[in-house]
Amino acid sequence: MSPRFTLPLGMLVLLALAAAAIPLTGADPDAIDLAKRYAGPSLAHPLGTDELGRDVALRLLYGARVSLAVAISAALAAVAIGTAIGLAAGTLGGRIDGALMRATDAVLALPVLPVLIVLAAIDTQKLGLPQSDDGGLWRIVAIVALFGWPKVARLVRATALALVNRDFVRAATALGAGRLRIMAVHILPNCAGPLLVATALAAGGTILYESVLSFLGLGIQPPTASWGNMLTNAQETIWQAPWLALWPGLAILATVTAINLLADALQDRIAGRR
Amino acid sequence: MKRARALLLALAVTLGFDGAAQAQSHDTLTIGISQFPSTLHPMFDSMAAKSYVLAMARRPLTTYDKDWKLVCLMCETLPTFENGGAKRVPLPDGKEGVEVTFRLKDGFKWGDGMPVSPRDAILAWDIGRHPRSGVASGESYRRILSVVAKDERTIAFTSDRVTFTYNDFSQFEFIPEHIERRLFEADPETYRRRTTFDTEPTNPALFNGPYRIAEVQQGAAIMLVPNGQWAAKMPAFKRVVVRAIENTAALEANLLSGSIDYVAGELGFTLDQALALEKRHPARFDFQYVPGLVYEHIDLNLDLPALQDKRVRQALILATDRAALVRQLFEDRQPVAASFINPKDAGYAADIAPYPFDLARAQALLDQAGYTRNVGGVRQNAAGQRLSFEFGTTAGNRIRETVQQVLQAQWRRAGIEVRIRNEPARVFFGETVRQRKFQLAMYAWISAPQSVPRTTLHSESIPTAENAWAGQNQPGIRNAEMDQLIDTIERELDADKRKALWARMQQIYADEAWVMPLFFRADPFVVPKWLAGLAPTGHQYPSPLAIEHWHVR
Amino acid sequence: MMRYALQRALQGVLVLVAASFAIYVLLGLMPGDPIDLMISGNPQITPDDVRRLRELYGIDRPILSRYAEWATAALQGDLGYSRLYAKPVLAAIGPALANTSVLMLAAFAIALAIGIPLGLLAAAKRGSFVDAAINGFAFVSAATPSFWLGLMLIVLFAVVLGWLPASALPLPGQDGLGARLLGLILPVATLALVEAGEYARYMRSAASEALAQDWVRTARAKGASRARVLFGHVLRNAAIPVATVAALGFGGLFSGALVTETIFAYPGMGKLIYDAILGSDYNLALACLLMAAGLVIVANFVADLAYAALDPRVSVA
Fold this sequence. Notes:
Largest sheet of chain B: 5 strands, mixed
Structural class of chain B: alpha+beta
Shape of chain B: globular
Helix content of chain A: 55-70%
Largest interface: B-C, 82 and 66 residues
Strand content of chain B: 15-25%
Order of helices and strands of chain A: HHHHHHHHHH
Distance between the termini of chain B: 44 Å
Shape of chain A: elongated
Number of helices of chain B: 18
Radius of gyration of chain B: 25 Å
Largest sheet of chain A: none
Oligomer: heterotrimer
């Protein structure tokens, strides 16, 4: 494999491994030490401490568990739903296209904030769902997928619309290829470009989005760390401790970069370049 | 790259580099507040931002001053039973009421030159007691049986009961009769949408204070200029601009960049933000921290079997080191509260101290209550019930979430498990607290000096489905002695006897531990060195009620 | 074409009507009504007051009858009264919409003006240092929260350098076109910078694909200049995904930008909608959300028309 794959992939795997292994150290990311609030970097705390004297480096690694899981699963969920709907609408056309796209419009027109507030009030225990110990992780994934798919659907449909009348698709149809086969073999691979860009950007966007959700109590509940709620907390301490926003910011940047580079490499591979 | 450079600059600022602080003449005072008032009508929708702005432009009959004493603003002397201004009167239904007579100061005029008269008080009373006018606390107006104009400057109010707050008219707002009567009579129900306060808020006739509103920039700013008809001490500034900046980090940036002069203590910085600012700019501002009437506390839901046991409730409080918490988070600027009564209040009982931090006693109490087994660090009783609670507050309130996590860690050491479940304010207040679905709930009350806790501690005020969840006794407190104390204290006119009743109330409150007191929130006043005469009040009647005394040093 | 447009307009209206009902129900589902909010900070309100106010504001009635009443009035052009802003709904929306339009249109235009050329340039110089730098910019742009960027710009340009105001709107009495423009620089820059990266990424990806097509090589081989190929052929062919994303961005214009507006104390639609929803100002919230929904529908319709214009092989009708 070329280094264009292995470098970003290696970085993500390394981050995931570190996040997975960190509990083995036995260090408690929620251990509070009020005597050491807002401490700068030191040997004991390589990235300093936060507003409760907790170790930022440790919380960053624990936060990676939540944030990477949310980012990747939410982005993939949104992309999967959006691709299916966009492909069907763009390829089949006509009434199906009309119905699917009006539904997409309706979801896009759905106001996010009231939906979130209603969701915040729903008591998962009352619905018969088990008391979740993941601090609301799957609720976040569901929210991001719900509001994320329409963009992907419109992108895929737009690209499919431009492809269905191309000669190679017409030829395949004339040769008797089924609609599913046309979608899977001829249309989908040619949508890879925008699709990969959308997926990669959505992964980063999701981590930022989670920071907004935690502001409404829909994110990860304290004291569990996530990059999103570390960012949210840093918003108010931007004068006391501006670096508290920097570390999760850099972690998000590194993740976004790795995922996007991976997407680029994949796009080139599909297009048969290099 | 961009990040790194910005970080360096942020650090430079953090380290005290002031940059663009400018020295200019102080004709205009620009005040930053964290909220924009909605309606400007003084009787609808009580809101701190509105009270703040209107305090510059309007004066009520009385108010509490910075020493928490009731004083006259529009009246000549405060009427009392002793000076004959107030007297007991028999009522038609056989009960006893109070008649209080106020004499207005000479020369009080609305901004258009019309003298303030008893007719303005009668209009306010008419609006307030009208069932369909939409005034929120209409009850207080309906307790007034009559308002009579004795002459052009003398008004007599008759109340339907004898209470010790008989001469407190601080929330009674005069409404200019010559402007508003016509609008109100046309249709009382829609009056609140047609009032001049909202259709033409710059009309000078609406204001009788040292300033009047001259311009309103929706959602952004309000400009005030001196009221030419003001007969008392003229204010020092030619213009006061009140600007709303909700984000407190941005508020700080505006202050440091010089685009606002002063951040209102009542509605501005959070305490820890001001403490940090003081470390960076000790010389540029005067810092005052004034504990006020915002009472932060944790309600314990008494419907839970575990919390019905007084020993468990007491252990919850004893297991927390609140003194260390306020020392380390707030540098002791907001001391631990012993009860709902502020130390500056006349009813405060100094001999009732807050619970100390006593882990051993907490452990002993929990053992006595039957939670003796330790399974995975969490106590259980013989029936296998874990000592575990859900702990909620308003999501996104960083100070509360910080305190919450400290308490969670402290309780863990006593074998009490607490799971944090925060919700947006409207879910939290609108449903969880209101309908008593919480287990532990942290939030705050705002009250006036000497306010009787009828709605918060009386058993009649427990919200239930039957009373449409009205009432604010959220823990579900039922205590016959407390009910009786509340009923008695309202009618007790003797200050010393009242003090004894207040003391007993605080004693029960402390002993029963239905509520875990945290602290009275301190308002940080960050005043530029050149601004003098500003005196924080620490209660709900804000400092601009004395704005005519603010001046350039 | 005409028939298609009419059909789409009709569908749009239907979606809007359905949305108005859905939003109304959604607002009603939110826990906590205006009276709850009034009580939560004021212990002096008595249970009797609560009952009286509920009845007065009509909150005690079922949601369907309230919706019917609202819809009847709305059809007659009366959108009701905003409780929070104490004025008719349209009067409350007016200034906020004007503020937001200026901010968002400027940011949208600048984000496109930065993103598209950068994306095109990156595709043309794929693999070079320029490409890497542009990608780096796009990644930073996608990973930077707008609150952080906004605050940092304020710290730099307002506090340290003192060149620009920290709040977007000039104070009353110091108002003027120049002051307004000066105040808009930082919020527009914040929004444009966090959005430009996305456009650059879509443009780069689409342009790379177009450049790899046979006909581009043919055009180059026939001696067409590089610039002519890029701008004449590639841009047009790569535009469909970018147009889609841009239409989605434009469709969100009336929703404002809550975070940026709050940081720069700029009273726009984002803040208005947020306050209306959190403050249970149903009339105001509904009107704002419907306007926002309408723009989403229109923007996507325009995008559909644009596909056919950009690529003659696309037929949407």
